[in-house]
Amino acid sequence: MSPQQRVNITVAHCDTPSSSYSSPIDRRISTLARHLLGEPSPAMANSDSISASPTSAANSIFAHVVRAPEDPILGVTVAYNKDPSPVKLNCGVGAYRTEDGKPLVLNVVRRAEQKLVNDMSRNKEYLPIVGLADFNKSSAKLIFGADSPVIQENRVTTVQCLSGTGSLRVGGEFLAKHYHQRTIYLPQPTWGNHPKVFTMAGLSIKPYRYYLPATRGLDFQGLLEDLGSAPSGAIVLLHACAHNPTGVDPSPQQWEQIRQLIRSKSLLPFFDSAYQGFASGSLDEDAQAVRMFAADGGELFVGQSYAKNMGLYAERVGALSIVCKTADVASKVESQLKLVIRPMYSSPPIHGASIVATILNDRDLYNDWTIELKGMADRIIRMRQQLFDALRARGTPGDWSHIIKQIGMFTFTGLNPEQVSFMTKEYHIYLTSDGRISMAGLNSKTVPHLADAIHAAVTRVV
């Protein structure tokens, strides 16, 4: 008997109503036979036709979605990567580069990672919602100072977040839910992601004057007037140091006036601290504005990032600290922060936070970190001086002293969008249209090329 005959016999034996099957085995044999013969199942046979899936390529439910524009900052790098020119220069990248133009992994980070790898007691269990306890405690001490009253009196709650951006978002959502004011004042200009982060968190955005183009410095009078007219209780975003994108910071005396105004108006300060130690080279000096506000007994928010000062960009390591009037209030605030974090990302990742905690809690690693950190800050300061000297040597029209007066990773050059476009087209130099350049992306070999481009742009493009 051939295989086909055996199949036919099987089908004949099983081709009876399903209710008359003598056992589950018969039903399985029938299904197998139909599969071998390529016959449709009863359910398929009763279907007149099969309609095209509503999610098929020709009929996408997302066909109406339009292509979003590139992020204005990240888009600079996208355009740079597409340029085949051997002399191209990326002045938009918000990350530190070595004198050779390469990304840097700090030696203390490598040592801390090796220490973690060698610790066989470590596991990959979930962290608590608020993150790694050692990381949180150390982060609070780093920004406020170990002897700060807010720490000694347990008036601060600190939670681990997804870098600085995540810290701002968690803080924003907490404020939108629990604070009586939903308006946050942002300096004009500010980091391009600030308006998006706080708007998505549920807050309303209003600007306050900060940068004065005529002097390429701080519009201090405008700042005081705008914050002075803000409604009582409004939230005010402040850059702790190395203002992004301008590189313009208030002096200690100006910070004190800002503090007095904010406290007299019962405004709520929210510090974004992305560059502690990376601006001046001193961790304490770069934290002075935050500590000034913490010392007066008032409440405040601080978002911290370890992307720049430890080079942990991709590890997404940050912290949100909220200073409260009492330890009891701080405890209650933390309980509500958990309810913000839990449905957002449940709990933060462990690796980056462990690196930070290891460095901050090991005396040798910490001391070596401060040395490496100052080395990065000093190299950026040298690049400022070299660019200023190169422009002066070329006789470039204008006063370029703001380049050495500003601080931190970025310089607000004062170049207009047309001049920026000219530099990109003619010199293959990429930067944001507002004229912001990253000093950390320069080195001694590329400064002359940039100076040539700036000189040409200023003299040839009005």
SSE topology sketch:
Elements lengths: L2 H12 L9 H14 L4 H4 L28 H9 L6 E2 L16 H12 L14 H12 L4 H4 L3 E7 H16 L4 E6 L5 H8 L2 E6 L1 E2 L4 E2 L1 H9 L6 E5 L12 H13 L3 E6 L14 H7 L5 E6 L11 E7 L3 H15 L9 H10 L2 H32 L7 H4 L4 E3 L4 H11 L1 E2 L5 E3 L8 H14 L2
Parallel strand pairs: 1-12, 3-4, 3-7, 7-8, 8-9
Antiparallel strand pairs: 2-10, 5-6, 9-10, 11-13
Helix pairs in contact: 1-2, 5-14, 5-15, 6-14, 8-9, 8-13, 10-11, 11-12, 15-18, 17-18
The radius of gyration over CA amounts to 30 Å
List how many beta strands DSSP finds: 13
> Could you tell me the strand content as a percent range?
5-15%
Q: What composes the largest sheet? A: 7 strands, mixed
Uncertain parts: 3-21
The CA-CA distance between the termini, in Å, is 95 Å
Count up the helices.
18
Helix amount: 40-55%
Q: Which whole number gives the mean pLDDT?
A: 90
So what's the overall shape? Answer: globular
Strand order of the largest sheet: 2-10-9-8-7-3-4
SSE-based structural type: alpha/beta
